[in-house]
Design brief:
The structure holds two protein chains of two kinds. By secondary structure, chain A is α/β, with parallel strands linked by helices. Chain A has 13 helices and 16 strands. Chain A has a four-stranded parallel β-sheet with strand order 9-8-10-11, sandwiched between helices. Chain A has a three-stranded parallel β-sheet with strand order 4-1-5, with helices on both faces. In chain A, strands 12-15-16 form a three-stranded antiparallel β-sheet. In chain A, 53% of the residues are buried. Classes of the chains: A alpha/beta, B mainly alpha. Chains A and B meet through helix 1, strand 4, helix 3, helix 4 and helix 7 of A and helix 1, helix 2, helix 5, helix 12 and helix 14 of B.
């Protein structure tokens, strides 16, 4: 009898717990305060911990902080009536989990009722939250997302903006550099290529294979390696003996750094050296000094753009780290576009989205404008020259530096 | 008899109330509900096999990921119900193969193997995608609303609960308890150990696979690192253990409060989440080593005893 009673009590507790939790859900969704506006709420969920924290901590988060400081130091976000309201930030850590980033953005939209949401870091996470941004009517300025499907996404989510191009753009630019160098007799037209078995590497290598073929470049070595590989000497040796004098690696930062070191140890000094993410980190130039010269990668800057140079200085002064040479400046420009669109249209999300899609904006990139909701004024290829990572492709773009090939041999330290 | 009827009625009522939640709760409430139901189902399914047999499995995310990936791969060429059936079937097939090969392992070897299994499947999927299809990362564009996902998960959680209840009251449940206590005794009693374990492992794996399959459309984009996130395995384990893996309502009582705690922590302490979480886990291990239910039962007994002792004094 007693046993039964105990069981009943336990069961009742289980039920009570479930019902209480449900009630809590319903209750939490209720309250919202209607007060006079004293601030503009801007929220974001970003990977502060977990596997994505490295990338987010270099390209995205410092720029969010810098922008908020810049705006608040200037008195706040300006609205169409000239009134200025300070930004109030609500920040969550998505812990590099897709489920968590979805929940955090949902929380920002429905619980915190923020005025605008800034994007998370990474292609996958930007896609994971895209339906939410769309459903709740927020413009999504997706920066750290390299995707060839942007034109499709734009049709699906009308308020989404894609700002870093797709794998084909980067691969085609590289192919045309290689083709030109072959035509000029600088290289023999044979290329050795390795790529990381992850979203980024696969995207680029699948775009590069047909692009190289079309450009008349022969791929004599083509290998994929698992993420977090640390020993590249077998691959470097095979590439060295393959007869190729151009080496391309669609790699992630740890591998980019390792490859640079191990190629020097192995005495492998191809005339064209193209490495992946990480090449554009300021620390890469610092660590490799003279040896970085001539190495190419994705991204780049216009060294003569004064606004960009000034931005780089301020970024380093405020956040303590220098911005990278690829996504950082785009991230900051995306925020400036948002700021300017708010100044023109106020806090109405739909009007701001429409303004973003159609307007032209002055940013640290110069005059910036979306084409079909995509940013196309990008540097597809950059090269280390004189201690700066400068944009070399598209060659006909204003401010493009001339690509210098072949790169010199490794300097002995 | 009437008590049984009553509990059936209460159970049905709770399910009905939960099914009604999407109509009153906002979209955030539904999001929370999805996460909670997902983990309740995972923890219940995990405890279904690991509770009685005491085989600690870290393969949860292997099956969860298989479900998610199956949906991602076939989402464009199949009707949705068929998609779930195929996901379940693949989960079942993998569970049978893996179960046949490994349920002879015991103790820590089984733990290590299951942890490796998740990684193995992730690498296999990656290898296949890289070398055969040449794309990594797949898009899921299915017209499934959050409400739809919520109701599907609720149905799945209810099913998991009923299966767990049914097994606990059947011959196979008894057989499992014997196996958990002593395998040698069990085999001497004439229990076909391998078959019983395999059957349970398969049922549990199919349920877990379905959770992954149902939740996947929320992500839009799936790649192996997203689908096979090992945290899922650990959280499931901790939730089931917190509640008490040997009891029917244990996983539920572990999953709901822990999920609420995670949510509360990440909303209010985004920067100290991991630290606080670590402290909470340590506290759980020290204060509730055998789960909430066992803790409550013990204290209930103690309280009853002291209550009985005090009673005469009051009566006098």
């Amino acid at each position: 009898m007693k046993n039964l009673e105990r069981r009943r009590v336990l069961r009742a507790m289980a039920l009570a717990g479930t019902v209480a939790a449900t009630g809590l859900l319903a209750g939490m969704t209720g309250a919202a305060m209607a007060q006079d506006r004293t601030s503009v709420k801007i929220g974001y969920a970003i990977s502060k911990t977990g596997g994505n924290a490295g990338g987010a901590g270099i390209t995205t988060l410092p720029n969010y902080k810098l922008w908020v400081k810049d705006v608040n130091d200037a008195g706040g976000l300006e609205l169409p009536d000239g009134k200025k309201l300070p930004i109030e930030v609500i920040e969550y850590d998505d812990r590099s989990s897709a489920e968590e980033v979805v929940r955090a953005v949902e929380r920002l939209a429905t619980q915190d009722k923020v005025d605008f949401i800034l994007v998370p870091w990474g292609t996958g996470f930007n896609l994971a939250v895209a339906p939410l941004f769309d459903r709740h009517g927020y413009p999504q300025l997706a920066v750290s997302a390299v995707t060839d499907k942007a034109p499709d996404f734009v049709k699906r989510w009308k308020k989404s903006f894609w700002m870093l191009g797709g794998g084909h753009d980067y691969a085609n630019a590289l192919a045309s550099i290689l083709a030109d160098a072959k035509k000029a007799g600088t290289v023999n037209g044979k290329v050795a290529m390795i790529s990381v078995a992850d979203g980024f590497g696969i995207d680029l290598v699948t775009a590069a294979r047909p692009a190289f073929k079309k450009a008349g470049i022969e791929v004599v070595y083509d290998k994929t390696y698992p993420g977090a590989t640390s020993d590249f000497s077998p691959m470097i040796n095979e590439a060295k003996s393959s007869g190729a004098d151009a080496f391309v690696a669609f790699s992630y930062p740890p591998e980019t750094f390792a490859l640079t070191q191990q190629a020097q140890v192995a005495g492998f000094s191809p005339k064209i050296l193209y490495l992946g993410v990480g090449t554009g980190f300021p620390v890469y130039g610092k660590n490799n000094g003279e040896n970085a010269t001539g190495i190419m990668s994705l991204g780049g800057i216009d060294p003569n753009n004064k606004m960009n140079a000034e931005y780089r200085k301020r970024h380093e002064a405020v956040t303590g780290v220098a911005p990278d040479y690829w996504g950082s400046v785009i991230t900051y420009a995306s925020l400036q576009m948002l700021q300017e669109a708010i100044k023109r249209k106020g806090l109405d999300k739909a009007a701001v989205s429409a303004e973003l899609a159609s307007g032209a904006f002055q940013t640290v990139l110069g005059e910036t404008k979306f084409e079909n909701n995509q940013l196309r004024q990008l540097w597809w290829t950059g090269q280390w020259q004189n201690g700066q990572f400068v944009g070399v492709m598209p060659a006909d773009r204003n401010g493009a530096s001339k690509v210098i090939l072949p790169r010199g041999d490794w300097k002995k330290k | 008899m009437s008590r049984a009827l009553l509990s059936v009625f209460v159970f049905a009522l709770v399910v009905a109330v939960l099914a009604y939640v999407p109509f009153i709760a906002g979209s955030y409430g539904i999001t929370l509900g999805i996460g909670m139901l997902g983990y309740v189902t995972l923890a219940t399914a995990w405890a279904l096999f690991s509770g009685p047999t005491r085989y600690v499995s870290l393969a949860t995310v292997a099956f969860f990921g298989i479900g998610a990936y199956t949906v991602a791969v076939f989402s464009e060429n199949m009707a949705y119900p068929l998609l779930l059936a195929v996901a379940g079937a693949i989960g079942l097939a993998v569970a049978l193969v893996v179960g046949l090969a490994t349920l002879r392992l015991a103790g820590v070897y089984f733990v290590i193997f299951t942890f490796g299994l998740a990684e193995l499947i992730r690498q296999l999927v990656t290898w296949y995608e890289v070398n055969v299809t040449g794309t990594l990362g797949r898009y899921i564009f299915l017209p499934v609303t959050p409400e739809g996902i919520y109701w599907q998960l609720l149905a799945l959680a209810t099913t998991a609960f009923l299966i767990s209840w049914g097994i606990g009251r059947s011959r196979i449940g008894l057989a499992l308890k014997v196996i958990g206590d002593d395998e040698v005794v069990a085999s001497h009693c004439g229990i076909d150990i391998a078959r019983v374990k395999l059957a349970l492992f398969a049922v549990s794996a199919v349920l877990i696979t379905l959770v992954g399959a149902i939740q996947a459309p929320r992500w839009t984009y799936v790649e192996p690192t997203i689908a096979f996130n090992p945290t899922v395995s650990f959280l499931t384990l901790i939730m089931a253990l917190l509640g008490g893996a040997n009891r029917l309502t244990g996983p539920l009582l572990g999953a709901v409060p822990l999920f609420m705690l995670f949510e509360w922590l990440s909303a209010n302490f985004p920067n100290h989440y991991s630290i606080i979480l670590g402290l909470v886990f340590i506290a759980i291990v020290f204060v509730l080593p055998r789960g909430v239910l066992a803790f409550v039962e013990e204290n209930w007994r103690r309280w009853r005893k002291s209550g009985v002792k005090n009673l005469p004094a009051v009566a006098e």
